[in-house]
Amino acid sequence: MSDTTSVLFAPARASASGRRDRHAVSAVPAPLLPVSLRTLVRQKPRRAQLQNVVAASPLRPFVLADDRLEHWSTPHGERYRHRISSVLPSSASSKIFHLIIKGLEPGMRQNYGARLLRFTQFCDLMALPEDLRVPAPEPIVAAFVAHYTGTVRHDTIIGWLSGLAAWHAMNGARWDSDKVLSYVKKGARKIELPPLPKRPPVTLEHMHALFSGLRLTDTFDTAIFAVTCSGFWGCWRLGELTIPSRGALDPRLHVLRSAEIGIRTLLSGTRYAVFHIPWTKSTKGSGAKIILTRNPDPTDPVKTVLNHRQINHSLPPGAPLFAFETAGAGGWAPITCDWLLDRCNEVWVATNLKPLMGHCFRIGGTTELLLRGMHPDIVATQGGWKSKAFLEYWWKIEQILPLFISDSFGQSRVQLLSNTMDDYRRRNGL
């Protein structure tokens, strides 16, 4: 079967006995499109949940969150575009707004669309006319902040405001943010919700539980173990190694099976694997080089990646690097973040460990390497951080260290790590 005619199947389905069968074929398989056409397929918006409903308006059609910036409009924005089109040809003016949209990463477009939804809901609640929504006078924006203060986190509100400011810019409207809004934001910070409890990181105990609980001859579990070991020891975000959903594969953002994985050995005998991913949160389209160093632990990332490639040897070149084979000739499915976390938490709960979130792998791997005495400069390079960003990340880690420390690391080791990080900050002038 060719790459363009492979079939994408569901990863799991309960059998009559209740046993999870990861090789069961989906009743309605979806054909895998060629890479060149795959990004043209659009998801259909689902029925809006009650908390996401807005008043019906021809200015705001029912579309996905990441399409709102492009398809929603305002009277002010329409007048703005009309003024531009009276000077420039329609092809030239359309290209301006097309490039503005394309300049935003898909995740940012989705975030801005979600933030725009919240402001629209507030305006509907207050029965505000369209001309007071864009441009929004400062008192209305301040009232928007005050309305949600105490119900959502302060940084969430600040994120909503950044999306609203971008929406004003796209509509050629002045963003009115002066002293009133500044004071309201300060007040909101002082009475915000109490901080959320720190998420415990993935520890070596969690990783060993995966080693013991996953079936490493099963195509699905093998792929899960490979990506988790890569994320943990490589200190990378799982979202940079997996895809968000079955229909979201994009070769510009996601590493494919065809990517070359170099296995190299230093003169010292140290073995490591290296491959390139096309996109990261910090480098965007420049991507990054992933370096995984072999270690004697059962979760050795080099060994797990090689085992994954051997077990899932029939994956087509156009599949994601971390995909798995399913039943039927040429059948495969990608590892998505949701499927990965569901399977990991299934194993952890069965071994009396608490369920965790995806970002916990990056925090856990970084902390493990630092506690083992690896120099901060090396860890920062490993995880693709700049010095300031890594120091900010360290402050987050420092707060969850008590959740991480086991009997194998005494208080003296923690103090030594703290001193090392203080020296790192001084050397980098931070």
Q: Topology as H/E string?
A: EEEEHHHHHHHHHHEEEHEEHHHHH
* Number of helical elements: 16
Q: Based on helices, strands and strand pairing, what is the structural class?
A: mainly alpha
Contiguous low-pLDDT stretches (5 residues minimum) are 1-42
Tell me the Rg in angstroms: 25 Å
The percent range for strand residues is 5-15%
In total, the number of strands is 9
What is the approximate shape? globular
Overall pLDDT confidence: 83
Largest sheet: 3 strands, antiparallel
Characterization of this structure:
The protein is mainly alpha-helical and 430 residues long. It contains 16 helices and nine strands. A three-stranded antiparallel sheet has the order 5-6-7. The protein has a two-stranded antiparallel ribbon with strand order 1-4.
Keywords:
430 residues; 16 helices; 46% helix; disordered N terminus
State the gist of this model.
With 430 residues, the protein is mainly alpha-helical. Helices cover 46% and strands 7% of the residues.
What does the secondary structure layout of this molecule look like, with pairings?
Blueprint: E1 7-8, E2 13-14, E3 20-21, E4 30-31, H1 35-38, H2 68-71, H3 75-85, H4 90-102, H5 106-125, H6 138-148, H7 154-170, H8 179-190, H9 204-213, H10 219-234, E5 262-265, E6 271-277, E7 288-293, H11 301-311, E8 323-325, E9 332-334, H12 337-350, H13 360-371, H14 376-382, H15 387-404, H16 411-427
Antiparallel strand pairs: 1-4, 2-3, 5-6, 6-7, 8-9
Helix pairs in contact: 5-7, 6-8, 10-11, 10-13, 15-16
